[in-house]
Structures are given as structure tokens and as C-alpha cells.
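BUG-173 | component: ligand-complex export | severity: low

The export step for coenzyme A jobs runs without errors, but we want the raw record kept on the ticket for reference. Input record follows.
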Amino acid sequence: MNRSIGEMVTIRPQMIKDARGFYDILTGGAFQFFPVNVASIEAEKRFLRKDIRQWRAGEAWNFSIMLGDRLIGAIGIMPEDSRPYNAEIGYFIDRELHGKGYTLQAVRLAEQFVLTCQPQIHRLYACMVVDNVASARVVEKAGFLREGRLSGYLKVGKTFHDAFVYGKVIGSY
Ligand SMILES: CC(C)(COP(=O)(O)OP(=O)(O)OC[C@H]1O[C@@H](n2cnc3c(N)ncnc32)[C@H](O)[C@@H]1OP(=O)(O)O)[C@@H](O)C(=O)NCCC(=O)NCCS
């Protein structure tokens, strides 16, 4: 895999000004296993406004992944409503920049955020369509364990897919 040595990503809370960048990444990506419908830049702005409210309410912490000044993707931590000590992690990266290890860096940074700023979260988990090898590889490299296969758990377009669930306990028992 071709890696660019020395390029480190950062993560920061999402901003309304990210709307165009996300629109371009999401509409240009044609991501096979990642159902995203972004109708317009205005719709993306509405999503980002909701995002900011959710951050303040502690309902989700969504970050932009940055390479220098360039917006290259997103990573989010979403605690469960009923068991807020469990949180799901999700991510995507600009298709042009796949294969450079940027998502793995972002997962590690998001985990650091949880450890330092959201210590009530005990467990992180990720779910992906079983054929989404890249996504599974990212969390495996970040130390998550494959815990099971969920039948028909994820719907992409009109089709239901089996999903793998990966988990990592980051708090103490
Ligand atoms: C999943 C995603 C975020 C991975 O991001 P990335 O930064 O490109 O990750 P990498 O390219 O570093 O790949 C991680 C690992 O998967 C491997 N990989 C990638 N595609 C693969 C494939 N088709 N088959 C086998 N391995 C693959 C890479 O080789 C790498 O492993 P390595 O470091 O041991 O070489 C990216 O593919 C993406 O944005 N996909 C669309 C959105 C999505 O599916 N999000 C996840 C929803 S659960």
C-alpha cells in the first residue's frame, strides 16, 4: 500500500463552512457500502447545524478530518440513547485519499478525545457491511475485535446486508 510518510491528519469539530467540502466528498465518492444522500449544499448545512446542536447536547461528537487546511473526511462518535456508555464510531474519507492510513490516524485521535473528554464512555463499537474490507481493516488495526455478524443489519439503497460488529472496551471494568 502506497503511504505518504510524515503526513498527519488532525480532527476538529465540524463547522458550517465544511458544507461544500462534505457535499463534494460525499457526492463524488460513490461509496459502495455507505448510504449517504446529500441533496444539496443547503441540505448539508442543515445537517451541520443539527450536528452542532447534538455536540452541545452530548448526543454525538462529529469531527472533520483535516490534512493541513484541507477537509478530507469525517469521523463521528455516537453514544447509544439507552446505554450512553456505549458509543458507535463511523467515518469516511475522500475517495482520492483512500489507502494512505488517514482513517486509522483519525480513529486513534477520536479514541483519544473519548478517553480525555468523554470518560463516561466505556466501549466503542463499529459496524460495517461484511464486504467493506477497508473499514474492517481500519478498526482491526486500531485494536478493535470482531465480535459477531449481524444478519441483515445494514440497509444500503434498497438492499439489506449482513454486518460485522467490532468492539473495544476503552474504560476499566
Ligand atoms: C473505510 C474507509 C474510511 C477506509 O479509509 P482509508 O483511509 O482509505 O483506509 P486505508 O486505505 O488506510 O485502508 C485500511 C486498510 O484496509 C486495507 N484495504 C483497503 N481496501 C481494501 C480492499 N478492497 N481489500 C482488502 N484490503 C483493503 C488497506 O490495505 C489497509 O490495510 P493496511 O494498512 O494493512 O494496508 C474508506 O474506504 C471510505 O471512506 N469508505 C467509504 C465510507 C465507508 O465505507 N465508511 C465506513 C462505514 S462502516
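Assignee comment: Attached the raw record above. The first strand starts at residue 10 and ends at 13.
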